[in-house]
Amino acid sequence: MPDTIRSNVAPTPSPQSLTIMLWLVATGFFMQTLDSTIVNTALPAMARSLGEAPLRMQGVVIAYSLTMATVIPFSGWLADKLGTRHVFFSAILIFTIGSLLCANAHTLMQLVIYRVVQGVGGAMLLPVGRLALLRVVPAERYLSAMSFVAIPGLIGPLIGPTLGGWIVQIASWHWIFLINVPVGVIGCIATRLFMTDSRNPSTAPFDLAGYLLLAVGMIALTISLDGLADLGLQHAIVLVLLVLSMACFVAYGLHAVRVAQPIFSLDLFKIHTFSVGLLGNLFARIGSGAMPYLLPLLLQISLGYSAFQAGLMMLPVAAAGMLSKRIVTSLIMKRGYRKVLMVNTVLVGLTMASFSLTSAEQPLWLRLVQLAFFGGVNSIQFTAMNTLTLKDLGTGGASSGNSLFSLVQMLSMSLGVTIAGAVLATFTGILPRVTATNSLPAFHATFLCVGIITAASAWIFAQLGPEIRAVNTKKTDPSEAH
């Protein structure tokens, strides 16, 4: 995606309009990130309502995150062409309509389709809102503005599981989506009244061929991984989809070398820290993306927790994650990125694997400590990987690098849930001790596999030089720090 040219700025809004714009973008980011986790604790309730097995509900999560990954690269170009106000208004409207449709879904297939609609709107909320602020906020205030926008986006995933469980307990799962509707209506009105409309007349033509290659590759890869376990696809179809996805990614590489302005330039991978950080994010985040899906299911299906109780058990993860961020910078300065990420990635993987020892007899205090420790090391992992990936992007690569990084984050979340769901379904079918009332052995095996995948990705960070230590925050967008 071409870099934003700051000279194409909109007229400076009044202080009141600027404040409302900040709240609009922050609220949009909050809605987007909240809906990536709020459904996790509600999946068993949704399954009962829709007449589905709880372990076959991963499509509800995958549809949202995969759609986000697919649409993100297109959003910035669309805002440049059509104007930030029009596209941001459309994003809120589509997200709100998608939420209303989700609340009225009567089958799992309908819910998955409506989550795709919701994901299309959600994917445009942050990139377009950030672009709108970039065009009107004075340069000296941009960092503080982005920090303000980032805070709700960080809070959304933290409170999502607990809020989802609470809503299910006091009302029904439908209200998880219905709460977005009044917020969306107010957002649409405020966008029309207060958001400035800016566009970039010199926007280069969109790399449609490159975009389609990436989109088809991501969708084919996800469907193939989910095909055997959940969709019931034949082995031959799964194999064809895997080959198609690999062919699309290779074709994009050849395409990006040939065209003048590809959607993502391969020159970005000449930056060693970016390429290692991006690949590390892709594979290490598979486990981290699987855990928010697996943990609420484990607690509710195998250990008998209510949705609200399962949501409350996620609070130690969130609290420890927030506390651990205080030590990351000093840790990297002392030990360097290579050592911190290698050791911490293995720790994250071992902690995930430790959930294979979970039992109904496990003391509550020990379970809370286990969850908190996972939250702490997982937060260190995110912060270290993110700052590594973005630290050496120059001004010329900041926009496309950030966009590619956002895509990889959402894709890895989708792959994490896809792989976890497929592995869980496989072990449910092949382990002799697993029954309808005893799914714990299948969960044990799944956590072990997810932990091994994560720990193995430490090898990627071993390619870093030991001298890479400084945390360069001036090129890191605070809204991407989660």
Automatic annotation (TrEMBL):
The chain crosses the membrane at residues 20-39, 59-79, 86-106, 112-133, 145-167, 173-194, 206-225, 231-254, 274-295, 307-328, 340-358, 364-384, 404-430, 442-462. GO terms for molecular function: transmembrane transporter activity. One of its GO terms (cellular component) is plasma membrane. Gene3D superfamilies: MFS general substrate transporter like domains (1.20.1250.20). Residues 21-469 form the Major facilitator superfamily (MFS) profile domain. The keyword tRNA-binding does not apply. It is a multi-pass membrane protein. InterPro entries: EmrB-like, MFS, MFS_dom, MFS_trans_sf. It is found in: Cell membrane. This is Permeases of the major facilitator superfamily. PANTHER family: BLR6921 PROTEIN, MAJOR FACILITATOR SUPERFAMILY MULTIDRUG TRANSPORTER MFSC. Keywords: Cell membrane, Membrane, Transmembrane, Transmembrane helix, Transport. The lineage of its organism: Bacteria, Pseudomonadati, Pseudomonadota, Betaproteobacteria, Burkholderiales. PROSITE patterns: MFS. It comes from the Bacteria. The keyword Nucleotide-binding does not apply. It comes from Caballeronia sordidicola (Burkholderia sordidicola).
